[in-house]
Amino acid sequence: MIYGERVRLRGVEKDDLPKFVAWLNDPEVVDGLGMFLPLSSGDENKWYEGVASLEPAEKPLVIEVRDGDNWRLVGNSSFFGIEWKNRLAEVGLFIGDKSIWDKGYGTEVMQLLFKHGFETLNLNRIWLRVHADNPRAVRVYEKVGMTHEGCYRQGVYKKGAFVDVLIMSILKAEWDEKQGDL
User: Fold this and answer.
1) pLDDT value at residue 59
2) What gap in Å lies between CA 145 and CA 107, rounded to an integer?
3) pLDDT digits (tens, 9 = 90+) for 54-101
4) Distance (Å, whole) CA 132 – CA 32
5) In the predicted model, is pLDDT for residue 146 greater than 70?
6) Is 128 left (phi over 0), alpha (psi -120 to 50) or beta?
7) What is the reported pLDDT for 70?
């Protein structure tokens, strides 16, 4: 497990799937994700079965937060599209438990993912795509030191309109420098 101050990341268990199905059928939660159709339990079970075939570095990590003496499931994160030769990966996360939105948990998760990606996986570049109409996520990514690299203009269609998709990244040297500032 990967531990932070208020957050930990762990492997996905089959018992986690009902929460994922509930969250991934919540329009507010999926608004910033690439999903646009309802998700069934069967779909999520197929996804879970496919997780076993992923290489270890690309297996999703459950996001949990401290809840008294216990841990509570709140979301999911992962690296994917890893290019080992180029030492880069795309990162993604969602926090499905809306009761903890806007409380700094996304920032802590990103910091843990950067630490894991740069120090354990030896990546040099971590990047992501974020919908331009998701200011909460953009703010988190800027706060953790990601740089705006570009934009897929009108890259997604949702709710009857096209929305830009921003490309953001952070390099290991930038992350190392930021650690020195703390």
Assistant:
1) 96
2) 10
3) 999 999 999 999 999 999 999 999 999 999 999 999 999 999 999 999
4) 9
5) yes
6) beta
7) 94
Between CA 127 and CA 83 the distance in angstroms is 12
- Report, in angstroms and rounded to the nearest whole number, the Rg of the chain calculated over CA atoms: 16
List domains and CATH numbers for the chain.
2-181 (3.40.630.30)
Cα dihedral 131, 134, 140, 143, rounded to 10, equals 80
Residue 41 and residue 21 in contact, taking contact as beta carbons nearer than 8 Å: yes
Question: Which residue in the block uniquely carries the two structure tokens 């290019």?
Answer: 83
Please give the pLDDT value at position 181: 67
Q: Check if the beta carbon of residue 123 is closer than 8 Å to that of residue 87.
A: yes
Report yes or no: 76 and 62 within 8 Å, Cβ to Cβ: yes
